[in-house]
Amino acid sequence: MTTIEEFAAGFGEEPGYLDYGRVGPLSAAVRAETLGQYEALATARFGTVDRMNVEDARVRDAISALTGFPAEQIAFQPNASTGLMHAAFGLTGGDLLLSPGEFPSVTYAAVRAAQAMHVVTPVWLETDHGRVTPAQLKEQLTDSTSAVMVSLVDSRTGYLADIDGIRQVIGDRLLIVDAIQGFGVVDVPYEVADVVVSGGQKWTRAGWGTGFLALSERAIEHLTPVFSGWVGTGEGERWDDVLEPVKGAAAFTVSNPDLVAEARLAAALEEVAAVGVAEIGSAISDLAEQVIDLADEFALPVASSRNPAERAGIVVLEPLPEQLTVLAASLFNHGVSAKVRATSVRLSVHAGTTEETLDMLRAALTSYASAA
Prior knowledge:
seven-stranded mixed beta sheet
């Protein structure tokens, strides 16, 4: 086991970083893994490249440990968006219920699948200020609804969806979860979903080019692997024939994976597993509470949930429109990295967020308050 203090020591970014919802700077373990893998690839000593093929099984085992899905029901993906495309294009009919306010990776996958395949219809859910809840889904489900697609943590509001509650109200319809804004830092029952998709460049700090698609047995049975390449047959390198996709998660692959990317994601997830998602989540919750306290101290409206059960690491501030530019400038001038949108500022804390970073945030908010 790794302590939360040891885990936090692996954060190497400079103070002031509060933008993990955009990208998580590489952890020390991932940096070491990357350097080691590329050194092996650069020298290509006899047998080295063949040995790198073990990274696929390694990363699927690491994903399995955190999701509860069997390793053979997991396929590595270059990013979450590709996994969402696989899932949406694989639907075989009916209505796909989702919020129009989801991150574009979700909505584009739904619409592009409808445009190309003509077998599924996106139906836009009416939400509570962008929050997808079991009660709203229950009211808007119909006999034609075949699947529901939802973000585990909403990128814009920071709202943590109740996927267990959603499963209970949607019955045996397919549940597709984009977990990228909570994977590795929120302890939730992923096994209630049929499809779980995530990328490793945010909270798990594995860098770009890392992701996965995890499928339940029901998803494997009902989804069609539309984009299935030669590696998706389960037969290896076969010439002179075009074979059918294998019946399994491997069918949802196009070509050989980036083995170094798989190693990066595996290293990141092994590090998370060593300390425990619940421990990481608890540390993040405490830090998010401190950010909310700072916002209250400076009379900055908090648009995200104050309930720890409804949030992960994202805190959204929503000042008056005429004060948004002042807030953004104050954060910039004090070296605080944050996501500024048209009407809000998103701050994302992680277990490695330091007191120095919070002090820099306080200084920025002090300047904001004096100028506003």
